[in-house]
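Researcher: Please translate sequence to structure tokens.
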Amino acid sequence: MYAAANPFRNASFNGQSNAYREVGVTSAVDGATPHRLVEMLYDGLLESIAQARGALRTNDTEVKCRSISRAVRIVEEGLTGGLDMASGGELAANLSLLYGYVARRLTLANLRNDESMLQECADLVQPLREAWTQISAQAAAPAPKRAVNG
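Model: Translation complete:
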């Protein structure tokens, strides 16, 4: 009933909206610190998972598949690909294992139309995003001044 009157369903509008979003993302990336870039990856991953969950609820297979594919790409190319395995030690190795698990669960969620698997992935990623945000805030804070003994 609302599809014909809804301007957000218009293909031309969607194309413009996507182009605007791309410009915004590009601008944000260009000026971002490395910490902010990782935070943006976490945000994009969580957003994609949320979109996939919504698409599952409305039986929108196209959006579900596109959202989960985007989430898997973020995990594999952005998060896993950004790990410094040479100097990251045990932390990098553990994150790599966790990211691999999340990518597999996302893929299974897509195949099985399983919202609980999507929620599990979001639940695993959210604490990482929160911790990363705290690290970023601490890294950006000015160092405390030391008292000079005269």
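Researcher: Any highlights?
Model: Confidence is low (pLDDT under 50) at residues 1-24.
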